[in-house]
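Worked example 3. Consider a protein that binds zinc ion.
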Amino acid sequence: MNTNLSFSAPSQVETDCLAVVVLDHSEKDKPAAIVESADTAVRDAAKDVIATGEVTGKAFETTLLHRPAGIRAKRLLLLGGGKAKTFSAAELLKLAGAAVRTLKSKSIRAFAFALPENGVATGIDGNDGVRAIVEGAFVGNFDPDYYKSDRKDQKIDALTIVAKGDQKALEDALQTGRIVGESQNFTRDLVNEPSNRMTPTMLGERARKMAAEVGLKCEVHGADKLKELKMGAFWGVAQGSDEPPALIILRYEPEGATKDVHLGLVGKGITFDTGGISIKPADGMEKMKYDMAGGATMIGAMRAIALLKPKVRVTAIILATENMPSGKAQKPGDVQIAMSGKSIEIINTDAEGRLVLADGLCYARQLGCTHLVDAATLTGAVVVALGYVNVGLFANDDQMYERFAKANKRAGENMWRLPLDDDYKENIKSSIADIVNAGPRHGGAINAAMFLKEFAEDTPWIHLDIAGTAWMEENKPWIAKGPSGVALRSLVEFVKGWAS
Ligand code: BES
Ligand code: MN
Ligand code: ZN
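Given these inputs, the predicted complex is written out as structure tokens:
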């Protein structure tokens, strides 16, 4: 999708469609939908339809007017943004996605989006607004129906953002939005592929190709390296599969980076999770192709980081393998020695994510990472706790949490902190080894995080359980159902926050 800025008055922009935001300023029984444009010609064009009460400004209400009077655009799209009081850049991002999804389904290929500029209501900084619109438009332009023979792949080819302000700053914001939006779609593309088309080896290849394009260092190692590093927990999972595992390392080492800070991003890359010997029921097992979403998120985040060039050192480690039952597979009761030296009693081979991450976290620390973030589709229990809305967030350090929460707020993604009290340690006690890999069902997401905490040790660490949020169960106005690319935006903001 081509993107460009226009500094004309919205009413003077020649386009197939001009999209504008309508907000609900109503109080008590007094309805008041206001077109967020300082251009009176645009407001006049929408006056009649607003007067009928048909347009209220409620969230994701879309009204398409043809041949609107007094403006140059062929159509005017009124996008309801909800209550004016709560409107923010996060809503604007979704509205841009909704505009794209509405218009591309009508075979429109190019349109213009007017930055809400009345300001009275939104108070969104112009640069943040442009970035949000571009990100949202890219997210909305992605469809996952790759393998349909009659795939239409309708897309928006060109987006013009009508804005006011400092051209250089707005161009930068647009570039940032493009990089982050495209990187999120890159992640979604990886996650979307089925396991026969995204084996650990293929994930490694995709990471390598991307790294070469954006100038990152990349290494992809196989089973020999796992054994050399004594990654007994990772190998325990990988040993049951005929597909070789891949230990993927991406390095971003800018000049003039912040001293003494080395961020480590660790991603779960299970390209298919059958459960292993503790096999999953057939019902819904096909979804376990997205069990590499955490890894794909880290690969996509590294792409964005390489292009945005924040001055902070970042290393990503992705643990990619299948989790399969076979004559070589690990069995319940087996004991594995993790890279850190800790012994793990395998209670349930389906609790494999924490095993691969244990060695990933340990390796990141060995490589000198000073701060760690992991992302993983780790537990069904996090879906029970938080549904399909919030990412489960855990932290072993409040300062690290505060930093991450700030970045998360800027990114506008739903995340919710869950506890890690020492009292939960009971749940991962083993009678024959240091810890078990699967505790009781209650508090399942926390038990998994407690397990990981043992391997983050004293390094400040954030764990993101994205099992409920990495895959959208339904179409939304702004995003297609399927892989969401969740957490990437927060991660990129977090990394940028450390730059000197
Ligand atoms: N990959 C799953 C978790 C998952 C569930 C991801 C639903 C996405 C949607 C993970 O490896 C798993 O199987 N976890 C088990 C752990 C249990 C055996 C302790 C679970 O949540 O049931
Ligand atoms: Mn599993
Ligand atoms: Zn899994």
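Take a moment to read the result before moving on. Residues 167-192 form the longest helix (26 residues). The chain is about 35% helix and 20% strand.
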